[in-house]
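ok so I'm stuck.
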Amino acid sequence: MEKPPAPAGGGEVSRAEAVDYYVATLARVLGNQEEAQMSIYDASWDGSYKFCCEIGDEASRDLSKIPGVLAVRPDKADKSEKEQKDNRGLDISSANLANFSDAVYDNSCSSGENEFWLVRMEKPGVEVVTKAQMVDHYTQILTKVLGNEKDAQVSIYHISWERDYGFCCHIEKACAMELADVPGVSSVQPDTNFGSDNKNYKGNDSFKSSEATRADVKTKRLFVTGLSFYTSEKTLRAAFEPFGELVEVKIIMDKISKRSKGYAFIEYTTEEAGGAALKAMNGQIINGWMIVVDVAKTRSRDRQPPSTALGRSHQMLRSRYHTG
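replied:
not stuck anymore, here's the structure
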């Protein structure tokens, strides 16, 4: 990419401004920013300007014709180098990591008790997933605790997705304790190597297995997150109907934009059907997005973020994986 336009106030282009520039450029080809955000899986903004994205051949040819794009070519990084990079997450230079740390502390909620945590995750229920899908999956998991997707996006600062699964995030201790109880989470512990890409996501076999506990779960009502904005109730009903008779399929819509918020409630006539759907559908792909299925809590809790969620000032940051 050519260098992004200089900021209105002058100075160097920031990470957030560069990523916004990349997303806007790719959105001109794909048609919308959400799809562009999900397609980008790596980016550079320190000295050279470039990004990696997962798109089709035709879209790549169209992208090469967009003003500001210098070249588009296949990402053919050395396999061993790429595997190592994919497993440890996106690279963060020492300088950028320090800037990120300072920014998080400056914009954290007023309690001043935010800490850095390493979250080990269980293997998803599907065999083939992309990095973009896993980042979205981790974001949806954290959103269930923070109550706000933007807060979840900016809290995640490191991921692992190919062999060992997990992510690192900057949240309050109370949120971390609640996160440990979310289905699919193996463990949550302090990130003792913040500032290093050497993270231990592997853990050991002593951690809980939610697949074992899910087999005995009986519930009529399910909470589904990670939905594509374009998934309809008809599509969702078709995916969950094979497990039993449905009472309700309700996708929650934003009152202002009239768009899906990305989550829904499913209710069956029997607990056996709900339990079977919970076990089988968690981690499945619908409309290209990996969904997370959990037991629905009380209705008031489903719609209210916990008091420990991050403050609005945190929304000023941009995730290195998603923007918006």
